[in-house]
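TL;DR need structure tokens for one chain.
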Amino acid sequence: MSVSFADYDNDGRMDIFVTNDNLPNFLFRNRGDGTFEEVALQTGVALLNHGMPVASMGTDFRDYDNDGLPDICVTALAGETFPLFQNRGNGLFRDATYSSGLSKLTRTRSGWSNGLFDFDNDGWKDLFTANSDVNDLIDLFQSTHYKQPNSLFANLGNGIFQDVSAEAGFTLSRAHRGSAFADFDNDGKIDIIVSALGEPAELWQNVSPNNNHWIILKLVGTRSNRDAIGANIRLGNQSNHVTTSVGYASSSPQTVHFGTGKITEIDRIEIRWPSGTLQVLRKVATNQALEIHEPK
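>> reply
TL;DR here they are.
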């Protein structure tokens, strides 16, 4: 149903996660010789703890707990919860759906596209999901609804997410599907555009009332691919990587956004380019969009 890319085992090669509707998910480990090995079951991301597959839909593959390892979030249909797989290192994940609070928060929702982005620039990636039921006649025979509002779950920084959807303004019910994420108005805050079946797309402007700082990086490859897809970035205890594959039937720009909280100058930015080149930037001011070229 969807695909996302990240280097889950920190070997310098991008791996591939694939969601499957009511079948076990796939995780393809990049062997580095042009071939991949399917390792979802042994790494812990094929199924949830109850041992059954769910109707997996959208996915994003990013580090939500700031331990330097990319984690996997997934959306699913009503009654199944939205899975969250926490990367524990050594090539293993654990099912964090319940411990993160997402099980209780998402059980009654049906989700499609999703994304892990820091919407309030506090240094922790939050989770957005585009919602609606799969059955357009569901209102006739169940208490749930076909058209649903989207969700925003704030990352509290302790492994737990809190539902702030209504406070964020997500009250409009539609048959939502795809989503894309970018700073459309150049104010340093990530905005969201969401598609809906049979209706115009929605552009949600981020007007979060805080004074947190930020930086947006646009990487340009020279030895690596020009878009720098696969480059890994470390900034303090945060990590992220360059990718355009986000959510369900969607893509987003390859720019990489970091919220930095009250930090106005970043001591060190470390970039590992797909070519293997390691680049370090020091004493970088926040509140700017910075283009970085790979050293030749």
